Amino acid sequence: MENHTLADYPELHEFGWTARWQALFAEHRAEDRLPARVLRGDRGSALVQTPQGVERAKSSVRLLKETPQASDLPIVGDWVVLHRPEDLDFPQIEKVLERKSAIRRGDPDKTSDTQVLAANVDVIFVVHPIADAPHLRRIERELSLAWDASAKPVVVLSKADLSTDPEGCMESVASIALGVDILLVNALEKSSCEQLLKYITGHQSAVLFGPSGAGKSTIINSILGEDRLSTQEVREVDGGGRHTTVARELINIPGSGIIIDTPGLRVLGLTGSAEGISSAFSDIEELALACRFRDCSHNHEPGCAVQIAIEGSTLLPERLASYNKLMKEAQFAARKTDARLRAEEESKWKLVSKAAREFNKRKKRD
Ligand SMILES: Nc1nc2c(ncn2[C@@H]2O[C@H](COP(=O)(O)OP(=O)(O)O)[C@@H](O)[C@H]2O)c(=O)[nH]1
Ligand SMILES: [Mg+2]
Ligand SMILES: [Zn+2]
Questions:
Q1: DSSP-assigned letter for residue 53
Q2: Is 232 close to ligand 1, i.e. is its CB under 6 Å away?
Q3: Of ligand 1's atoms, which has the minimum distance to the CA of residue 212?
Q4: Is this prediction's pTM over 0.70?
Q5: What is the pLDDT of residue 70?
Q6: Which residues pair with 106 in a beta bridge?
Q7: How far apart are CA 30 and CA 131, in angstroms?
Q8: CB-ligand 1 contact for 163 (6 Å cutoff)
Q9: The predicted structure's pLDDT at residue 108
Q10: Residues 169, 139: Cα–Cα separation, whole Å
Q11: pLDDT band at 6 (very low <50, low <70, confident <90, very high)
Q12: Of the bound ligands, which one is closest to the alpha carbon of residue 209?
């Protein structure tokens, strides 16, 4: 499907333009319409890459009206249809082409159920520092979100140069990051960071995901060989990085692929989906197939294969606790979404029945 001899818009090729986007754009093709990729979404406008260069664009009023969910509005990585009428100062984004993947988190400010952090990525680099022992529970959470995104997760253990036992860290992460490649990286070293490039050959797109101060912006700067993105010194006292990347930004690595930088997020809420968790905890899910009861909660039911694995020390109780915690959180998020959808549905029916009552009243009068 991903055809690399695209006659149309060769200028967009290095930004990830493929046959998929060509086909989706074809429906909207018109004289003053152009395809473009969102490089950065700012409040109210977006920086987009068109076949002719970089421009600032705004979502059209119609797009805003027709998009009920904020998470469906243009976000970094999106491919969009740009309308560029001559009498307007700003090109308008008319349509967001159907995403092939999206990394989401539960939205902490409840404007919608989930917030999309980046769209149309092939690879998600879960960047995690190992200057201190890796935070396995956070990695499990990040991987659960990553597995949900229809993209390949890869764990990048950064600050390997500051670790006293990088190999040991890698081993402990390997025990919880099943089926995932793990890279040891010193973000300050170009050659070390270039390990990431083999995952995005042929102009594929990746996003860097992980806590603030992990080295995400530093990795991109090292690969580019220039200080394109601002980075922040780690505070000596608590070792925590400060928040420096405010915008999510799409960077084209010449001759390679695309990497999207994201700011570290303090709150990393799960979405209502359990699928990512199931993939991230395939060991537990597999054990559970052998539990006597299909709805086993792996607590104290007889014939629980998960508890037997814990007793036999082939599964750590912390990992089961982490799985249970994430599942519970996802179920809560799903209920919240259901409640909101129900409320919307109810208010819609209230309007409909009110309209019907008024209609009947009028009919009686006539
Ligand atoms: N020694 C060392 N320092 C690093 C490494 N990665 C990042 N840093 C430093 O950690 C700080 C935070 O990095 P930054 O790239 O801003 O993190 P971000 O928030 O994930 O983008 C900066 O001062 C970097 O120089 C690494 O692998 N080794
Ligand atoms: Mg940064
Ligand atoms: Zn069980």
A1: E
A2: yes
A3: 19
A4: yes
A5: 85
A6: 114, 269
A7: 53
A8: no
A9: 65
A10: 12
A11: low
A12: 1
| Centre of ligand 1 from the C-alpha of residue 216, in Å | 7
Minimum-distance ligand 1 atom for the alpha carbon of 218: 15
Does 77 share its domain with 155?
no
Q: Give the residue from 145, 179, 27, 193 showing the smallest Cα distance to 95.
A: 27
How many domains in the chain? 2
**How many angstroms separate the alpha carbon of residue 261 from the centre of ligand 2?**
7
Residue 352 lies in a domain: no
What is the per-residue burial (b if ≥16 Cβ within 10 Å, else e) of 242-254? eebbeebbbbbbe
User: CB within 8 A of 51, min separation 6: which ones?
Assistant: 9, 11, 12, 34, 35
Which of 228, 261, 294 is a domain's end point?
A: 261
Task: Indicate if the pLDDT at residue 72 is higher than 70.
Answer: yes
Of all residues in the chain, the percent with pLDDT exceeding 70 is 87
Enter the tokens of residue 226: 């220039």
Q: What range defines the domain where residue 38 resides?
A: 10-96
Could you tell me the two tokens for 75? 């976000």
Tens-digit pLDDT profile for residues 97-150? 999 999 998 876 666 678 899 999 999 999 999 999 999 999 999 999 999 999
Distance, in Å, from the CA atom of 3 to the CA atom of 242, rounded to the nearest integer, reads: 42
